[in-house]
Design brief:
Strand content: under 5%
Distance between the termini: 8 Å
Radius of gyration: 17 Å
Shape: elongated
Number of helices: 4
Number of strands: 0
Structural class: mainly alpha
Number of domains: 1
C-alpha cells in the first residue's frame, strides 16, 4: 500500500502496528508544537496570544484530520466493522471502545469483506 493510499484512502485494512505508529507520530508532532508554543508565549503579557505557534498548531490539526480518519477507517475494516464506527469516538466514555478495538484487538485473520490484511 502506498503512502497516498494509506493516508488518504478509506479502502482497505491496516494492522495495529500501523495504527499505533501513526498515533504515536501525531502525539509526538503535537507535543513538539505545544513545546514551541509554550516557549514562545509571552507569559508577562496575559493578553498576548500564542502568535505563529498557535497558527501552526491549528494548521497541523487541520492537516492531520483526514489521514487520521483514513487510518481509523482501515483499522475498523481490519476488525470487520464498518468505518461508521469512527463516530463512537465522539460519545464520552463509550468512545473507549474505539481505543480497545483499534489499538488492542487483532484483526480478522485472512480476508474479510474489506479485503486482505495489509
Amino acid at each position: 500500500m502506498s503512502w497516498g493510499q494509506l493516508l488518504f484512502s478509506f479502502d482497505g485494512r491496516v494492522g495495529r502496528g500501523v495504527y499505533w505508529g501513526f498515533t504515536v507520530a501525531v502525539i509526538v508532532l503535537f507535543c513538539l508544537l505545544a513545546g514551541v508554543m509554550f516557549m514562545t508565549t509571552d507569559w508577562s503579557n496575559p493578553q498576548a496570544g500564542g502568535g505563529l505557534s498557535s497558527v501552526l498548531m491549528f494548521v497541523a490539526g487541520l492537516l492531520v484530520i483526514w489521514p487520521a480518519l483514513a487510518i481509523q477507517a482501515k483499522r475498523w475494516h481490519d476488525v470487520d466493522k464498518s468505518a461508521w464506527w469512527i463516530l463512537i469516538g465522539f460519545v464520552p466514555v463509550v468512545g473507549l471502545i474505539a481505543l480497545v478495538f483499534n489499538g488492542f484487538i487483532a484483526g480478522t485473520p485472512g480476508a474479510n469483506r474489506f479485503g486482505n490484511p495489509a
